[in-house]
Amino acid sequence: MIHPSESPRTRRREAGYTLFEIMLVLGIIAVLVGSAIYMLAGNVDVAKEQRVESDIQAISMQLRTYETLNYKRPSTAQGLKALVERPSGDPKPRKWKQLLKQVPLDPWGNEYVYRSPGKDNPQGFDLYSLGPDGVESADDVGKDQK
Asked: pTM of this prediction?
């Protein structure tokens, strides 16, 4: 029950939140969201590296299939494009078959590096991502896989 000495103005002030209280709550929420984004930023890099590893495994499997069908891997010049469209240069494939719909790009938007025979793996092939900087350097992703 309303006390007779209370004015309508006093009742209105007690019924809602002040602008200061609302701004304080929004500030706290902004700090919490910012902290969460900062903490998750490292997980994005880990996810990109995981994707590179799975792409390399999938592409490597298709390269081995190509080699089984044609007795040779695509040359470095033919590249991974040989898995998408019939290569015209040597070595010509004897039983070419489209093994990929398109050549995938790494998570940073660059093409995967493919060399056959490989520099790091002379009996096989090299397949890796240049990493976030897009330049051959120590941060290349997938170079140690095989």
From this structure: 0.69
